[in-house]
């Protein structure tokens, strides 16, 4: 249980009320997508995807995805995309403002995709509380391999689009995160879920998608200490 100030209510890690409208913190990757899927499977209704972009409004802060790619995901899912553009320094403040905006539109709960890193969970729950909302983490407490097995069982698909230099080969860019790739990574001592920032993915298909996402392979670009596949959509 997260330690909260005495005037705040404890969070509920998995529960959403059947028929409840909710929003989802959306990186575009497999974890936020699976969290969206689990929340929806409980009978709750996704109304909005929330994404933070860079100051120039062109790329996501978390994975460096081009805006057109995230727009295409939202269209394929049939869910409204809400966003804010900001620097890393003002990230928290900007996200709280975005959450307050969607709360005024009736959202009471925001879903996050973290699995087991307590510092991430605590930050997300506090940000939600600052906006007067409830943070819900449908994946929380699952084993990392369990998350992947559930991902594949739901017939979801994800493409590796970011790898951390010195941790993973850039040859993995553009590959589908399937069981074969996961086993290769584990054989190298790499967490196949990428929860420690070893790599990031782009969700391209699954039961919530009205149609698969069609992406065009892009150049490999170095950004900071990561290699990124600079994708576009067809």
SSE inventory with pairings:
Elements lengths: L20 E5 L4 H12 L3 E9 L13 H11 L2 E6 L5 H14 L4 E3 L6 H13 L3 E3 L7 H10 L3 E8 L14 H9 L11 E7 L9 E2 L3 E4 L2 E4 L2 E2 L1
Parallel strand pairs: 1-2, 1-4, 2-3, 4-5
Antiparallel strand pairs: 6-7, 6-10, 8-11, 9-10
Explain the overall architecture.
This protein is α/β, with parallel strands linked by helices. The protein has two domains: 116 residues, HUPs (Rossmann fold, 3-Layer(aba) Sandwich), CATH 3.40.50; 80 residues, putative n-type atp pyrophosphatase, domain 2. Helix content is 29%, strand content 23%. The chain has six helices and eleven strands. The strands form three sheets. It has a five-stranded parallel beta sheet, sandwiched between helices. The radius of gyration is 17 Å and the shape is globular.
């Amino acid at each position: 249980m997260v330690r909260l100030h005495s005037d705040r209510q404890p969070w509920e890690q998995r529960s959403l009320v059947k028929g409840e409208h909710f929003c989802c913190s959306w990186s575009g990757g497999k974890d936020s997508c699976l969290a969206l899927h689990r929340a929806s499977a409980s009978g709750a209704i996704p109304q909005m995807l929330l994404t933070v972009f860079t100051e120039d409004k062109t790329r996501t802060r978390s994975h460096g995805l081009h805006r057109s790619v995230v727009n295409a995901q939202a269209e394929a899912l049939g869910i409204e995309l809400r966003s804010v553009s900001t620097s890393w320094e003002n990230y928290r403040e900007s996200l709280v403002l975005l959450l307050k905006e969607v709360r005024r539109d009736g959202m009471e709960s925001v879903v996050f995709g973290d699995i087991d890193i307590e510092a991430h969970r605590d930050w997300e729950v506090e940000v939600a509380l600052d906006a007067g909302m409830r943070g819900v983490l449908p994946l929380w407490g699952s084993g990392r391999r369990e998350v992947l097995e559930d991902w594949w069982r739901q017939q979801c698909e994800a493409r590796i689009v970011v790898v951390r230099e010195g941790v993973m080969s850039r040859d993995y860019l553009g590959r589908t995160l399937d069981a074969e790739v996961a086993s290769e990574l584990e054989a190298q001592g790499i967490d196949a879920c990428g929860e420690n920032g070893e790599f990031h993915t782009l969700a391209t298909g699954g039961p919530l998608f009205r149609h698969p996402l069609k992406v065009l392979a892009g150049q490999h670009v170095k950004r900071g200490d990561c290699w990124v596949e600079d994708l576009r959509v067809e």
